[in-house]
Design goal:
alpha/beta, binds flavin-adenine dinucleotide, globular, Methane Monooxygenase Hydroxylase, Chain G, domain 1, 22 strands
Length: 575
């Protein structure tokens, strides 16, 4: 058994920021960070457009209150406003701290950090490093973990959260390199395992975004919050689904349909291309459904619309959004200086997750918390995004709540001792689970079943939803769940056995998918990213509340949590 004071699962922005905070506050603490990828290959590294903070470098009328209001309105009034106030008040400080760590932000001519426009934000407040912001931040954080001597377990896959008597005691891990199993014991465990984009068939997320942390928490009997709110980013590159950052529209690009119309005028006249993502994604989907999408030969009725940058000119394109130019060129053969980019909505972000307090402590129910278990980042739901996240607020959440959670953990572990764990029991049980997978006699390919799950989620729980669609989707998922017992693993070895990982990740996808669909079925209203064609209006009387979903004995059971409203009374949301 390996012992550490703190074990953090996840090497993205949230996990790295928390580890840094613990190291700064308690240099003597023995902190371990585990990631199934190398930390700097976490999805955070792909973040493009920027991080919001009211530095007021280009707009002195901005304020944290304005940022908070935009965030709450963007969330369709489902965000917890105490958490949003913390997010927006602490934002300038965390960004300046990143700058002091060495993050190479883009600059104004006078040397201060540049700030650009972003969807749903009423002021230009998004700080950026061209369109590679996540890369710039994550690399600097990672270097600092090495400097502080944090123990890194990279390419170790966490299989299970050890939770006994309402206390998190450690994790069971699988070393991808050679198949070794270990129990890691700690005084506090933190999950920063990121999102679950791979539950769907078209996503901007990396291959590792399979919702493992969410599935492990659910299997340990803990609730997941607001899982019905799945963000579609309006501009996924067609057909790959990779992201063309909102920064491109922030810098002035247009969305046009096959008739050449800037159709956003019909959906959000005051914000046009910079409306929030839920509204813009529905607008694009509606244009495509009504036959005003484009085919690759330019004719009408096709599966995408155009993102037009041509009027921006070469210099602006190549200095502000060079990576988006490169992606379109490399993956779609489009030179955005001369041609419009084909785009359509792509699954991007998980608003819901493991419910936590504003100090990152995980909730066990609407009224109680779990001892020694913390979470932050995209895997958590402190609810600053409610029903729809604004762009550039997620990196901010990772850094603000990563720091707060790190501070809370440093305080929590001081003076505590390591818990008792029956190591043999956990090792045997993990060994047995893996052996069962290896011995399964079936013939079904993992990739085939995964594709069916992803297609099912996309078809029955997409941009537009209805009871009939979701019920059909849930029935299909039940059927697919049974077929999991029939997948075959060809690789029986211990060295770098990616089939074992794929089988485990598929289990996460199926659990998370079922929780998303059941939560979506229960929410009989339309709010933010959750759009029910059979219940087109928001219903505050019945549904101004968070969903809590428990996965008990293979069944999803629902409860709810009240929304914290402190500053802004819910109003109709118009742009
Ligand atoms: C293409 C793209 C662009 C984006 N651009 C922006 C932007 O400009 N601004 C913004 O605010 N947001 C943006 N976002 C969203 C934002 O990047 C993410 O929400 C955020 O970076 C998530 O960070 P995280 O630390 O929570 O998780 P991640 O960075 O996803 O890291 C998860 C970590 O958990 C580890 N892990 C997961 N499961 C296991 C397991 N079973 N065992 C061990 N380790 C595990 C992974 O290896 C990884 O290290 C973007 C997202 C994408 C996909």
């Amino acid at each position: 058994m390996l012992d550490h004071d703190v074990v953090i699962v996840g090497g993205g922005l949230a996990g790295c920021r928390a580890a840094l905070e613990i190291a700064r506050r308690s240099p003597q603490a023995n902190v371990a960070l585990i990631a199934k990828t190398h930390p700097i290959r976490s999805h955070s590294v792909a973040a493009q457009g920027g991080i919001a903070a009211t530095l007021k470098n280009v707009d002195d009328q901005d304020s944290w209150e304005a940022h908070a209001f935009d965030t709450v309105k963007g969330s369709d009034y489902l965000a917890d406003q105490d958490a949003v106030a913390i997010l927006t008040q602490e934002a300038p400080d965390v960004v300046i701290d990143l700058e002091h760590l060495g993050v190479l932000f883009s600059r104004l001519p006078d040397g201060r950090i540049a700030q650009r426009a972003f969807g749903g934000h009423s002021h230009n407040r998004t700080c950026y490093a061209a369109d590679k912001t996540g890369h710039a931040i994550l690399h600097e954080l990672y270097c600092n973990l090495i400097r502080y001597g944090v123990t890194l377990y990279d390419e170790w896959y966490v299989l299970r959260l050890i939770l006994e008597d309402n206390q998190a005691k450690g994790v069971v891990v699988y070393h991808i390199l050679d198949g070794t199993l270990e129990v890691i014991r700690a005084k506090a465990v933190m999950f920063a395992t990121g999102g679950y984009g791979r539950v769907f068939n078209t996503t901007s997320n990396d291959f590792a975004s399979t919702g493992d942390g969410l599935a492990m928490a659910a299997l340990a009997g803990l609730p997941l919050e607001d899982m019905e709110f799945v963000q579609f980013h309006p501009t996924g590159l067609y057909p790959a689904g990779v992201l063309i950052s909102e920064a491109v529209r922030g810098e002035g690009a247009y969305l046009v349909n096959v008739e050449g119309d800037r159709f956003m005028a019909n959906y959000a006249p005051s914000r046009m291309e910079l409306a929030p993502r839920d509204i813009t994604s529905r607008a694009i989907t509606t244009e495509i459904r009504q036959g005003r999408g484009v085919h690759l030969d330019g004719s009408a009725g096709g599966p995408f619309v155009h993102l037009d940058l041509r009027h921006m000119g070469r210099e602006k394109i190549m200095s502000r959004v060079p990576f988006c130019w490169e992606e379109s060129h490399r993956l779609a053969g489009v030179d955005a200086i001369y041609e419009p980019i084909p785009v359509r909505p792509t699954i991007h972000y998980s608003m819901g997750g493991i419910p936590v307090t504003v100090n990152g402590q995980v909730r066990r129910s609407a009224t109680a918390q779990v001892e020694s278990f913390f979470a932050a980042g995209e895997a958590a739901c402190v609810s600053v995004h409610g029903a729809n996240r604004l762009g550039s607020n997620s990196l901010l959440e990772c850094v603000v709540y990563g720091r707060r959670t790190g501070a809370a953990i440093a305080e929590y572990v001081a003076g505590r001792s390591l818990p008792e764990i029956n190591e043999k029991f956990y090792l045997e049980s993990a060994k047995q689970d893996i052996q069962t997978l290896l011995d399964q006699p079936g013939t079904l390919r993992i990739g085939a079943l995964r594709q069916q799950v992803q297609d099912c989620m996309t078809q029955y729980c997409g941009v537009y939803r209805s009871e009939a669609l979701i019920l059909e989707g849930l029935a299909q998922l039940q059927d697919l769940k049974e077929r999991y017992q029939t997948i075959r693993l060809d690789d029986k070895g211990t060295q770098w056995n990616t089939e074992i990982l794929e089988a485990l990740e598929l289990r996460s996808l199926m659990i998370v998918g079922e929780i998303i669909m059941t939560s979506a079925l229960n929410r009989k209203e339309s709010r933010g990213a959750h759009c029910r064609e059979d219940y087109p209006d928001r219903d505050d009387a019945a549904f101004l509340q968070h969903t809590l979903a428990y996965f008990t004995a293979g069944q999803v059971q629902l409860d709810h949590l009240p929304v914290t409203i402190t500053q802004f009374e819910p109003k109709e949301r118009k742009y």
